[in-house]
Amino acid sequence: RAGSKILGALALLLAGAAHAEDGYRLWLRAAVATPAAATITLRGDTRTLALARHELAASLPAGANVTLATSADPAVAALKLPFAPLGDEGYLIRPVTLNGQPTVLVAGNSDRGALYGAFALLRHLATGGTLATATLTSAPKVKLRVLNHWDNLDETVERGYAGDSLWDWWTLLDRIDPRYTDYARANASIGINGTVLNNVNAKADSLTPRYIAKAAALADVFRPWGIKVYLSARFSAPIELGGLKTADPRDRQVAAWWKAKADEIYRAIPDFGGFLVKANSEGQPGPRDYGASHADGANMLAAAVKPHGGIVMWRAFVYADTDPSDRAKQAYTEFKPLDGTFADNVLVQVKNGAIDFQPREPFHPLFGAMPKTPLMMEFQITKEYLGFATHLAYLGPLFQETLASATGRGKETVATVVDGSSEGHRLTGMAGVANIGRDRDWSGSTFNQANWYVFGRMAWDPTLTAEPIAREWAQQTFGTDARVVDTAVTMMMGSREAVVDYTGPLGLAHLMATGHHYGPGPWVDDLKRPEWNPAYYHKADRQGIGFDRTKSGSDAIAQYASPIAKRLADPGTTPERELLWFHHVAWDRKMPSGRTLWEDLVAHYDRGVAYVGNMRSQWDGVRTLVDTERWQKTATYLAVQEREARWWRDASLTYWMSLNGRPLPASVAAPE
Ligand code: GCU
User: Fold this and answer.
1) Per the database record, which ranges form the Glycosyl hydrolase family 67 catalytic domain (predicted)?
2) Neighbours of 172 (CB within 10 A)
3) Which residue has the least CA distance to atom 7 on ligand 1?
């Protein structure tokens, strides 16, 4: 007896070791003890349906009866279910009777729809639903749901904080790392259907036959998961690779070179998605080098991929030294006049805000300003300005805040621009700069995985909100114990605001240290280009602080539709959270709180630090309820975050005090 007890304990230990919670399994951890005890029928014979079955087999409870199918199956078609609204990728899940047998039908118009349905069913079950209540329907509101990897061919990742690139270009082709499949599976589970493999600061080499073959190998792995491969294209590649004298998009030889290049790529990757281009920005080559426009450049590339069904995602993130007075105005100034001149397979990809992925930015004024052009949203999932991988900041509220912003044109919001419903665009997209690397937990920390997750869910439906997504992520990631889930969700929901508070509250932005962008540097004022300097953004002096973007300043607010511009013209009607983004305000201005701006500012910095302290004690409270490995790493990072939140606060306040000569408000503790 004693022996069998010991054996039993040993078996448990071993099982535990096999499931060491290092975060590798992401939110996909709901496996049952005895897989394959369920009955899963496939109506159709495709690799994608087989993958869907495999997913269900690992997680469905014993006795479950599920049928995976497409609407093309005659028996399914005979049920006359509402398949039409599902489009190419939507799914429906229903209890039905097929061939006299009760079963839960998981189906779409395509096998990809059925695969998304399988993942939706698993999500439903992992978040407390039952098979009996599994009646679900959903179709993506956005067509291209794409990760942008800023991955270099030398396997480093620009602004990547989770290890080297997943793509092992060195061994690729010969070795197909099983991790590529795990990556595709994770993406499919949240509806992501495209991936740009290489950095927007692209090297021409990625378009050479060697790298095309490697990209094709990845595309082969991703295809059954419904994921297309795209490449960032270096605009000057015809010179670097083709030996041409120019990359002028109006040159016939240049256009012919790109056409031949596209044909070559499509021979290797028949369903290649298309190109992403960063042109004439931060030193990248582009059509403007030749006096041609962004539309000339985009349309020339679009013509090359068009015969194959490809598209071009042309980024609006441009800033050059053409108008150093206000960097925030440049994208609008250059792109707005081009509305209506882009080919029908071009999307213009616009960052959520007009500067650069700051912890808070007002929505980019291009949204709503180019009705004739599909505008693709670009969010940054990797937290370049929100504490890299170490700080806990859930980005759901940031995404939601941007997407829900009214553009001032009727009922239009940024979400209705992005999902095409405002203007009836069919080609629509959302891009997220990935936070994925070779770390065991993919994203550098457990909570960073939530940012990948929420991006996928909101790309599928930009009207979804941050809190329920945080909840479903936490349930799938930590299990359904309400104490853990509630704690995680509470911590997450205020975490981004805390970062805003301790790095740059009330509309301040771009105050970080130079180059690496980690930690405070509001005092920096000696960099070559004016708009690289934090001082350019805060404009603080003895009297006040903030960037005047009204008529008396850069007049950037004129780029918004008039109801919005009117509201922003007056500091009294500007949302307080954006005050110093749009106005230069006296330190002594009376705020709605009854305090002065200076006192409010200090209170915000303090609140941010306190929030992190609170997260630490909340996380301490679930210590025994979360596996040691993930609990400890999170706890360690929270301690780092608290120390660095203080660093941000104390350094920033000390600097502001050196300018405004004011003492710390009495109610606030002196910086430690
Ligand atoms: C930011 C970031 C760069 C990146 C650029 C872009 O400026 O710091 O690393 O290349 O955005 O989006 O192109």
Assistant:
1) 127-442
2) 19
3) 356
Domains in the chain: boundaries: 21-138, 144-463, 501-547+584-660
Q: In whole angstroms, what is the distance from residue 180 CA to residue 152 CA?
A: 17
Catalytic residue among 334, 384, 419, 600: 384
Residue pair 375/417 in contact (Cβ under 8 Å)? The answer is yes
Query: What is the pairing mode between strands 101-108 and 91-98?
Result: antiparallel
Rounded-to-integer distance, Cα 277 and Cα 231, Å: 9
Span 144-463: which CATH code? 3.20.20.80
Q: Which helix (H) or strand (E) holds 108?
A: strand 101-108
Q: Is the pLDDT of residue 14 over 90?
A: no
How far is the C-alpha of 431 from the C-alpha of 232, rounded, in Å? 13
**Is 221 close to ligand 1, i.e. is its CB under 6 Å away?**
no
CB 156 less than 6 A from any atom of ligand 1: no
656 lines ligand 1 (CB under 6 A): no
Return the CATH class of domain 21-138: alpha beta
Instruction: Decide: 159 in ligand 1 pocket, CB within 6 A.
Output: yes
Question: In this structure, how many other beta carbons lie within 10 angstroms of the beta carbon of residue 99?
Answer: 8
Q: First-to-last CA distance in the chain?
A: 60
What is the distance, to the nearest Å, from the Cα of residue 207 to the centroid of all Cα atoms in its chain? 25
In the prediction, which pLDDT does 671 show? Answer: 46
Compute the distance between CA of residue 619 and CA of residue 449 in angstroms, rounded to an integer: 17
* Rounded (10°) angle between helices 396-403 and 446-460: 20
β 65-70/101-108 pair status: parallel
Rounded average pLDDT over 219-239: 98
What would the two tokens of residue 204 be?
Answer: 């021409």
Instruction: Find the catalytic residue in 151, 334, 356, 419.
Output: 356
CATH superfamily of the domain spanning 501-547+584-660: Alpha-glucuronidase, C-terminal domain (3.90.1330.10)
**Rounded Cα gap, residues 404 and 510, in angstroms:** 23
Q: How many CB atoms neighbour CB 132 within 10 A?
A: 8
Helix pair 466-478, 482-503: axis angle to 10 deg: 130
Pocket test for ligand 1, best of 156, 159, 380, 381 (most atoms within 8 A of CB): 159
For residues 328 and 180, what is the distance between their CA atoms, to the nearest angstrom? 38
Count of Cβ atoms closer than 10 Å to residue 423 Cβ: 15
- What is the best residue among 356, 376, 379, 537 to mutate for testing ligand 1's pocket, by most ligand atoms within 8 Å of CB? 356
**Could you give the CA distance from residue 282 to residue 321 in angstroms, rounded to a whole number?**
10
> Is 321 known to be catalytic?
no
Does ligand 1 come within 6 angstroms of the Cβ of 565?
no
Residues 518-533 have a mean pLDDT of 94
CB of residue 538 inside a 6 A radius of ligand 1: no
- Is 356 an active-site residue? yes
- Give the tens place of pLDDT for each residue, 140-196: 999 999 999 999 999 999 999 999 999 999 999 999 999 999 999 999 999 999 999
**Three-state secondary structure of 280-321:** CCCCCCCHHHHCCCHHHHHHHHHHHHHHHCCEEEEECCCCCC
User: Who has greater pLDDT, 531 or 200?
Assistant: 200
- Dihedral sign for Cα 356, 358, 362, 363, please: positive
Closest CA to 199 of 158, 164, 169, 229: 158
**Tokens 């500012």, residue?**
601
In contact, 166 and 155? CB cutoff 8 Å? no
Question: CB within 8 A of 317, min separation 6: which ones?
Answer: 278, 281, 331, 349, 350, 351, 356, 378
* 577 touches 585 (CB < 8 A): no
The structure tokens 């073959």 sit at: 213
